[in-house]
Amino acid sequence: MSEEMKISNVHFFFKIFFTILFTSHGSQIDDVPSPNNGVAFFVFGDSLLDPGNNNFINTTEDFRANFTPYGETFFNSPTGRFSDGRLIPDFIAEYANLPLIPAYLDPHNNLYIHGVNFASGGGGALVETHQGFAINIETQLRYFKKVERSLRKKLGDARASSLLSDSVYMFSIGGNDYIVAFEGSPVLEKYTEIEYVNMVIGNVTSVLQVSSNLIIFPPQFHLISSFNSVLIAN
């Protein structure tokens, strides 16, 4: 591969981040089952999906959205969402006749029957991305394991397994890992641009591999990339 092609690939990957939506039993995105079928919605990622988890961690205002004008057009007050209203998971939940999926770190949230949202504004696929200021994807997956144990304790193994296997899982991760490249991240002092891009891609791949062990994913899944809004369904 020529040097020009390598640089072109770097610039391409610096622009892209991934949102991955997994559904069970090969169902289509517009066929989200009703809550009467025991469906829950679990969300992982960054500020595109964060419903307010960063309200409950020791971080700076740069990584929070709990002040105006956030939230003013729908909630009439800031909720921690990086939006003046709702986020993509809120619309999906509404379509599926689910309540708004709460932030995992919200102290008032301990049921998890309808799902939970682990996303954190500023979070990345790399542990080093905004380390100490946001919740990385590996930590979010550890939180999910705690939720799984809680559900098995409350519902029993059979009901919990059924709920988890019939649920919807949404991931949005990777964008912040590239953004920090322009924020003077010390990690980039150790690696070339190509090496860094490969690290991010490798971590996203690892996250999906780990997720497949934690979550009972179906053989069919949907991949939505925010870059050009491309939908790929296998």
UniProtKB/TrEMBL annotation:
What does the UniProt keyword field contain? Signal
Pfam families from the UniProt entry: Lipase_GDSL
| GO MF annotation list | lipase activity
- Per the UniProt entry, the signal peptide is 1-26
Looking up InterPro entries in the UniProt record yields: GDSL, GLIP1-5/GLL25
Q: Does the keyword Phosphoprotein apply?
A: no
Note the PANTHER family from the entry: GDSL ESTERASE_LIPASE 1-RELATED (PTHR45966:SF1), GDSL-LIKE LIPASE/ACYLHYDROLASE (PTHR45966)
Q: Which protein are we looking at? A: GDSL lipase
Organism, as annotated: Cucurbita argyrosperma subsp. sororia
